[in-house]
Specification:
The complex is a heterodimer. By secondary structure, chain A is an all-alpha fold. Chain A has 14 helices and 1 strand. In chain B, about 65% of the residues lie in helices and about 0% in strands. The chains are: A mainly alpha, B mainly alpha.
């Protein structure tokens, strides 16, 4: 049983990142709708920075650079989506450069990186430019909460009385926050696309969101109903975006199905705990980076216990 | 080792090829935690130079015939004995005000692995002169890294250099934190390794054979994500897989078992003969009966 050959569906790396880019088109369009051309410029600067850094690194390391490596575009767009629209241009540029130079190139490319490059880039930007990254004052006149994001609202223990109108606003992302991650409905559509293309990757997403929901039910940060707590926690910041785009990174996901679910659940619990006690409003990237380090451990532990149970089963059959 | 070795040879080996911080990765704690500014890094470097050189010279002069289990604690005692008067002098006789964060890490230089490694591996096996050369080279090599790291961290993290404000358009606060320092050390180590492998190729032990670079696109296409759990959704494929294994395994079971025995332990007869030659009577036939 232990040597059972698994039938494997091999997906090319370029196709995986191509799928991500296709999925990211919709959030880009929504962010341009909400924040105007400023959002498009942020995305462009971020992509250019990632591509130029990869080209420069390839030149220094004497490797051939190919535009077919779409991971740079994914890194650039993903980082831009997690930024506010009014962020100075150097912030996404530095974040993308940091993602490529510290988390991608030293490990031999996106397909070997032990940490999700986009999450690493955003985490570095959050630490270095905290004021700029969490400043959501751009074009907030027609937003539900003005310049205040859901994350800061929950951090302060405040709540929103949910009704049909503002729930819809929250679900379509018409609130202050990261420019491309607030639209929950779009994230659901992206999940459906991912389900069609890479079903197994969604196991980590399911584990992650499940853990976040359970945590929000058990330990609500606000004095409101369980439903409100869950909706507000899931809609705040880049939680859903991270669950769909970052945690499903092919290089860092464990290989087994149960491992993926546990990996996602651990990441979700850490993310919610960081939200509860941490100083940063946006904790998904930190939680993902933290869990990336334990990804091989989770798989090894599960393999160990899996082999034990298989051995016991074999022995039981012999005795019979 | 002969005494004709010049300081230059020892310096190149101790400070560049086997740089303690970047190549041997010893002494990382002080550089990451304490060298956040140029002034701190300079103080740390001076104390390291003084302590390491003096400890190595004393170890080479007096501890050659001392048993090893006594020597190692003695290095630490000598190091502390050297550092304590320096700290007392700085605090009482100068106007320099050491911050609490700095004070914690200065005594730790005495128990640094750099001191123990160079005393044990070099000083007690060589003459006093060579030990002095080695300690000086190593401490200078480490000090250069300390100072560079301190200056860059202060410049990028605080927009100052030596306490003087510098007008930079952007300040990277992360550089003042340990993770920024570790990232910087990583890049510096990569740069130094690349330099050493080109300038001194004979000293590179783990050098890989040169391979022609392949196009990046092909390399990325080689990567495949293993979608093991797709079988979860395909029940038919699940049922077919075990049958294939059974067919493969039942083709020649006896031969495969024999091969296993030969590869792992040798044949049963050989094992019996081996035990008989040792005077032990191990009868496998009895077990069969």
């Amino acid at each position: 049983m232990a040597n059972k050959p698994q039938k494997q569906n091999k997906v090319k790396a370029s196709q995986i990142f191509g799928d991500y880019i296709v999925m990211l088109i919709a959030p880009c369009i929504v962010s341009v709708m909400y924040y105007g051309t400023r959002a498009a410029w942020v995305v462009l600067v971020s992509i250019l920075s990632a591509v130029i850094c990869d080209m420069a690194a390839s030149l220094i390391l004497r490797k051939n650079f190919s535009f077919r490596d779409t991971s740079n575009v994914f890194i650039g767009v993903a980082i831009a989506m997690m930024m506010p629209a009014g962020v100075p241009f150097y912030v996404p540029a530095v974040a993308s450069a940091a993602a490529v130079l510290t988390a991608k190139i030293p490990f031999g490319g996106s397909h070997k990186a032990p940490f999700v490059p986009a999450a690493a880039g955003f985490a570095i930007a959050s630490v270095c430019f905290k004021e700029q990254v969490f400043n959501y004052t751009e074009s907030t006149a027609d937003k539900l909460l003005g310049a205040q994001s859901l994350g800061s609202l929950l951090a302060n223990g405040n709540s929103v009385q949910l009704n049909l109108g503002n729930t819809f606003d929250i679900l379509v992302g018409n609130i202050s926050g990261p420019m491309g991650t607030g639209c929950g409905i779009l994230m659901l559509v992206c999940c459906c696309y991912l389900f069609v293309r890479r079903k197994s990757a969604l196991l980590a997403t399911a584990g992650f969101i499940g853990a976040c929901v359970v945590y929000a039910m058990l330990f609500p940060r606000i004095n409101a109903s369980v439903f409100s707590s869950i909706v507000l926690e899931l809609s705040a910041g880049s939680l859903l975006f991270g669950a769909v785009f970052l945690i499903t990174d092919p290089a860092t996901l464990p290989k087994g199905g149960i491992s993926r679910v546990i990996y996602g659940a651990v990441c979700g619990i850490i993310c919610m705990m960081m939200r509860a006690v941490g100083t940063y409003e946006e904790t998904v990237c930190f939680a993902i980076l933290f869990t990336n380090g334990f990804s091989p451990v989770i798989e090894a532990v599960l393999n160990y216990f899996g082999s034990l149970s298989l051995t016991k089963g074999k022995g039981a059959l012999k005795n019979e | 080792m002969s005494n004709n070795i010049s300081f230059k040879d020892v310096f190149i080996k101790g400070a560049v090829i086997y740089n303690p911080v970047l190549i041997q990765l010893v002494g990382l704690c002080p550089v990451v935690a304490a060298s956040t500014t140029l002034a701190r890094a300079a103080i740390l470097s001076l104390i390291l130079c003084f302590e390491l050189t003096l400890t190595c010279v004393i170890a080479s002069a007096f501890l050659k015939k001392t048993p090893r289990w006594v020597r190692v604690p003695l290095y630490l005692i000598i190091g502390i004995a050297v550092i304590c008067p320096i700290l007392w002098f700085i605090e009482t006789q100068t106007l320099m005000n050491l911050s609490l964060g700095m004070k914690i890490y200065l005594p730790m230089i005495a128990v640094n692995s750099m001191t123990a490694v160079h005393c044990e591996q070099f000083a007690v096996k060589n003459s006093v002169k060579l030990s002095f050369y080695d300690a000086a080279a190593v401490s200078i090599g480490a000090s250069i890294i300390f100072v560079i790291v301190g200056a860059v961290r202060e410049l990028l993290g605080n927009s100052t250099l030596g306490g003087m404000p510098v007008n930079l358009p952007v300040t990277f606060k992360g550089m003042a934190l340990p993770f920024g320092c570790l990232i910087m050390l990583g890049f510096m180590a990569a740069g130094l390794k690349a330099y050493v492998s080109r300038r001194y190729p004979d000293f590179v032990e783990d050098r890989e054979p040169e391979v022609k670079p392949e196009p990046v696109a092909d390399a990325s296409d080689e990567m495949t994500e293993v979608e093991v759990f797709d079988e979860f959704w395909e029940e038919e494929a699940k049922e077919e897989a075990p049958e294939e294994i059974v067919e493969e395994n039942t083709q020649q079971p006896e031969e495969s078992e024999k091969k296993k025995e030969e590869h792992s332990f040798g044949s049963v007869e050989e094992i019996e003969e081996f035990f008989k030659s040792l005077g032990l009577d191990v009868g496998t036939k009895g077990d069969e009966q």
